[in-house]
Amino acid sequence: MLTRQTYFYKFLEPVSKELATIARELEHSIFTSPRTMLTHARTFMEAIIDKVLVTEHISFQIYTSLIEKLDNLDEQGIITSEVRDALHVVRKNGNLAAHDVRPFRYSEALLSWEALHTIVSWYVEVYGPLEMKTPDYHDPEPSIQESYDMAELQIRFENMEKLFKNSFQKFLMQTPEEAEVAATIQEVENFSEEENVTPGMTTIRTIYYGTDSINVPHFLRDAFLLPQRFEKSELFLIRLGGEQQARIMSELPENIEGLHTYVKRYNETNDKNLFEELKIFIKEEKKRREIKLIRPGELFLFYKEDYIIVTEKLSQVSLDKNEFDGIPSLLRQLNEFGIEYVGQLPQELVTLAKYRNVGIGTVEKLFEQLKAKVK
């Protein structure tokens, strides 16, 4: 079975690292989002055509329509009838996917995937290294690994296509002789950042403070900013929440500077503190997500950057003074709310600080005693 490391078009890397990387994403999106695959298969195909036009010294403008480019190649006898038909399959399906709101089937994505094989085989045979051969076509298989959701997949394609366009602009600035050589070697743009990002970790946006910045991964795009997770900014976030600001990640402005102006009696220091604690929050959430992926089906209790696995035995431990020392007020209030066993505790333990006369120090005492019981 193909994996993210051994994908079908890996052989294309010596010709174009960018094209190979986009082809990999197309392959993995067939069974995740046929619409996305069809839309970007058209873009992938047009990128190949543009490289051919430059290599063949055929004049064209950026705004030239795709069908005009294909007709030009056809009229000059550069493409065969089989390749021409394959190009139009990808073009038409891509146009439909970009505009039609109906659901698209896996079978439609597979038709374009097969047409791409015809196109790439022709491109490699005519413009690739003499020793390079395109493997025989075969249908891709659905991946059993975690996949990107449709929104994240769209972002990944846009990012990679933007990188490809930047590389292609450099390609256009070369002399015809340099372009012919460049058509058969790997472009210099570095795709490694996009390649190694696991599902959920694609950057959805960047938040700034002064000259500093932090990337927000896709899985945290609408994460709830629990005030108790921000030691220095807890009250600041509560006040902002009262003004319907900064309750979730997507409500944060692109630049944190000036956020304090939404509430009275806060200043620039609060903005800076929040930004620094956002860094910690995102780092902790990334670690938690990694743990959950490695240990699926487990019950966790988290405290700041630390965690414990709740076994069946631990979940049945009573929350009373016989099991836990020095936190009687917290235990009493938990019991009053019907929380009598460890297995009933909230996954995010810092929320326990909401109880009357219970501070973060008390919660830490509980967590340390839970860790001791695990050991």
DSSP summary, beta strand count? 4
What is the N-to-C order of secondary-structure elements (H for helix, E for strand)?
Answer: HHHHHHHHEEHHEEHHH
| Spatial gap, N to C terminus | 40 Å
Shape: elongated
Average pLDDT over all residues: 86
Explain what you see.
The chain is mostly helical and 375 residues long. It folds into three domains: 188 residues, no CATH class; 96 residues, no CATH class; 78 residues, DNA polymerase, domain 1 (Orthogonal Bundle). Helices cover 49% and strands 6% of the residues. The chain is built from 13 helices and four strands. A two-stranded antiparallel sheet has the order 1-2. Strands 3-4 form a two-stranded antiparallel ribbon. A hairpin with a 2-residue loop joins strand 3 and strand 4. The longest helix has 27 residues.
